[in-house]
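ingest -> validate -> predict -> emit
validate: passed (alphabet ok, no gaps, 259 aa)
predict: started
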Amino acid sequence: MKEFFGFGGYQRPAEGFLSWQHLVFVTSLMAVMVALAVILGRKNRFALPRQKNRVLIWAALLIDGFELFKIVLLCFRAEDPWSWLYNLPLFLCSIQLIALPVAAFTKGRIKESSLDFVCIFGILGAVLGTYGAGQNYGCYPVLSFDNVVSGVTHSIAGFASLYILISGMASLKRKNIGITFGILLFFCVAAYTANILLDYNYMFLMAGDGTPYDILYNLVGGHKVFYPLSVVALFIVYIVLYYGVCGLVRKAKKAKLAV
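emit:
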């Protein structure tokens, strides 16, 4: 147990990023994530909104519970009460720690916009935070506290994203796209500010750090201005494409029903 939780440092060598152990572990998580989302989403497709929302409430409590436990243990393990400053929810996938509870516990347009945000970015964060997490799997053993909790929380975010889509909770109205942009840009500015103050790399706005962002970092030659702007631009393009594809799918469904 001491080795699993990393007290005194991990003694086992890391199996490595994209090793078969890494791929088997995260694929297992993704399989469970998709299966639960499909089963519960289809089951609640025509349920009352309150019943649909219960699943999100549990997902919100679990993702924040796991993350809070991780932060407390990491601070205790580091023997530094200020180490929480390096575990703030300022990565793209970490935004779900705030967006998912807001989607689960609010009403009206705030809930609607939060549901859309979780739906759009939850699955992207789940994939990038498991298959693309070179900064974790390149440093820690696969079956370690750091990687297991990270894998679970990213999977919960991905589950929530798919569940919202399958159960019909996502509105994806064009009028909400501005709010989606606003949420994203607020966290990008907060992450960049924290990076400057703490000399850190939240949201990978400073460097790729062993993740697929390295491709973009190398393309712009690691430019201190163009690189973070390019990362934010990719997020914006992704939002536009997501709304666009969903709009085309809806139009196709309406045309099919009309025939």
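The first helix runs from residue 2 to 5.
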